Amino acid sequence: MQTANAIRLTLTAALAATAVNIVMGTLIAWVLVRDRFPGRRVIEFLIDIPFALPSLVAYLVLLSLYGPDSPLGINVLGTPYSVFLAILFVTLPFVVRTVEPVLMELDADVERAAESLGASKGATFVRIILPSLAPAVAAGATLSFARGVGEFGALILLTGNRPNVSEGAPVRIQAYIETDNTAAAAAVAVLLLVVALAAIGALDLISRRVARHEG
Amino acid sequence: MRARAGVRVGLVVAYVFLLVAWPLWMVIEETFLSGENYVAIALSDPTLRRAIGVTLAASACAVVLNTVFGVGLGILLVRHRFPGRRLLSALTDLPASVSPIVVGLALLLAYGPVNGVLGAPLADAGCGSSSAFRASCSQ
Fold first, then answer.
1. How far apart are CA B130 and CA B103, in angstroms?
2. List of domains in chain A
3. Is B99 in Cβ contact with A150 (below 8 Å)?
4. Cα separation values, A37 from A17, A41, A102, A172, Å
5. How far is Cα A125 from Cα A130, in angstroms, rounded to an integer?
6. CB distance B99–A149 less than 8 Å?
7. Which residues on chain B are in Cβ contact (under 8 Å) with A65?
8. How many beta-carbon contacts under 8 Å exist across A and B?
C-alpha cells in the first residue's frame, strides 16, 4: 500500500511537472530565441544549472527558499508538493533545450507569409509555429517525464519522506535495500524501468515520425 | 506587440528567478557571506577531502572510458546495420532516463562484492562499478 502510494505520487508529480515544463519550457525557449532583453544571457546560463548541479545540491538550494526558513513563508518540506517542486527543478532544462534549436531553425519567412495572407498572430502561432515545434516539445517532455520519475537525490532530502504523504518511489527502493529486501526493491525498480523504457519507446516513435515528415 | 513581449519576458524571468536564481543565491550567501569561512572549514576535514578525491578520480576514469566506448558505440550505431541495433540504441538511452537508485540496485545485483554475479572476481577493481555506469550513460 505504502509502495503503491509512493509510485502513484511519483507518477503524478512527474506528470504535473512535465505539464508545467511543456508550457514554461516552450515559453522560455521562445523568449530566449526571439526576444532580446538585458539579462538574456543570465537566464540562458541559469537554465543549465539544474543539469550541472548534483541533485543533492538541488535539495539544499530548494530548501533554502522553500523550506522551514523560507523568506517567502512557503514551506513545502514534508508535503507532496515537495516532490513536484524537486522534479520541476531538475527537469527545467529538458524542454527548453530541445525546443530552442528547432525554434532557431524555424523560417521566419513562413510566418511572414502567413501574416501577409491575413492570418492573425494567434492563428499563425497555432497553425504554423506549433506544428513544427510539437515534436521537439514532445521529445523534451518525454525526457523530462523519465527523469522526473527517476529523480532520487532531491527527493530523499527535500520531501521528508513521510510514508503515504511525500514518499516517492525511488526512495521506497532505497528503504527496501536498507532493510535487505532486494527482491521487493527489484520489483519496484523493474516498474520504474518499464516506465523509463516506455518513455524511450515513445521518444523513438516521435523522432521517427518527424524523420518521415521531413523525408 | 511590445507589451506582449514584455509580459512574456517578465513571466520567464520571474519563473527562472524563483525556481533557480533566488534559491541558488541563498546557498551561496550562506556559504560565503554569513561570517565564517565555511569552505575552508569544510576543506580542513580529511574525510571530505578524500571523498572529493574519490569522486574526481571516478569521474576522470569514467570520462576516459566514455570517450573510448562512446565514440565506438556512436560509430557502430550510425555506420553499421545489424540485428539488435535498435535494441542497443534503446539500451544506450536507458541510464539517462532511469532512476539512479535503480541503476545502483542493478549494479549492486550484478557487481556487488558479496552476492553480485560478476562481483566477486571484480571486487577490487577500483573505479569499476561507477565507470561502468557512466560508460553506459554516453551516446
1. 10
2. 2-214 (1.10.3720.10)
3. yes
4. 27, 9, 21, 45
5. 6
6. yes
7. 18, 22-23, 26
8. 119
Cell triple for residue B8? 512574456
Residue A150 φ/ψ, nearest 5 degrees? -85, -10
> How long, in residues, is chain B?
139
Number of H helices, E strands in chain B: 8, 0
Dist. CA A163–CA A78, nearest whole Å: 10
Of all residues in chain A, the one with the smallest CA distance to B102 is: A189
Place of cell 576514469: B61
Give A25-67 pLDDT, tens digit per residue.
Answer: 888 888 888 878 888 888 888 888 887 777 777 777 777 777 7
* Cell digits of residue B94: 536507458
What cell numbers appear for B107 in the block?
A: 549494479
> How does DSSP classify residue A167?
-
Gap between the Cα atoms of A86 and A88, Å rounded: 5
Longest dimension (CA), chain A: 68
How many other C-beta atoms lie within 10 A of the C-beta of residue A185? 24
Neighbours of A193 (CB within 10 A): 20
Can you read off the three cell numbers belonging to residue B111? 557487481
Contacts of A129 (CB under 8 A, 6+ apart): A106, A111
A147/A196 Cα distance (integer angstroms): 8
DSSP symbols for B18-76 = IIIIHHHHHHHHHHHSSSS-HHHHHHT-HHHHHHHHHHHHHHHHHHHHHHHHHHHHHHH
Tell me the pLDDT of chain A averaged across its residues: 78
- Eight-class DSSP state of B139: -
Angle between helices A80-90 and A55-66 (to 10 degrees): 120
pLDDT string in tens for chain B (139-residue length): 567 778 888 888 888 888 888 878 877 777 777 767 777 777 787 888 888 888 888 888 888 888 888 888 888 888 888 888 878 877 777 776 666 677 777 777 777 665 556 655 555 444 444 444 444 443 3
Contact criterion met (CB < 8 Å) for B108 and A146: no
